[in-house]
Amino acid sequence: xxxxxxxxxxxxxxxxxxxxxxxxxxxxxxxxxxxxxxxxxxxxxxxxxxxxxxxxxxxxxxxxxxxxxxxxxxxxxxxxxxxxxxxxxxxxxxxxxxxxxxxxxxxxxxxxxxxxxxxxxxxxxxxxxxxxxxxxxxxxxxxxxxxxxxxxxxxxxxxxxxxxxxxxxxxxxxxxxxxxxxxxxxxxxxxxxxxxxxxxxxxxxxxxxxxxxxxxxxxxxxxx
Length: 224
Description:
- By secondary structure, this protein is mostly helical.
- The chain has one domain.
- The protein has ten helices and no strands.
- It is globular.
């Protein structure tokens, strides 16, 4: 990749990250995480104060790539006439999605440390776990963003994934096998057991890139 290409991708990723951090979905995701985790901690609803549920909702709400908004603004058309092609657009979009979701994970860990200062190990463990989970969510969020005109594609994606899991279990699939297939059978405080999840997370980010690339290919002006 040439320096000019890297530079345009970096600039677009920074632009997209700024858009994301000011978006309705990001703000709602942060607030939703804070409410769920604070409530779980205050009322001792489970061992980790509902950290897992809170960060899952936060990631889903804050992890969109704003493809629907771009369509309304005709942004691919404007960018295609100036600085970007579909591949660079997709790289910038997914890099921004990754950075923003990791920022939410880091913020969540910080909040957990403040709420539960006696157990930093559990907060750090959850940070690693949900850094991997973000990659599992990313392609579903990008697909919902590409297909639907909604401000909360992550919520649609999360509900769809949960519905799919319920359907699988309802048809007789062992829940443990689903957990194992997703790489979610990691042992708390044993980082090496997260390796299968991280492998699937890499595949998830690559899939998210392909989804955004496909959406960009249809949205950008054709040569000639």
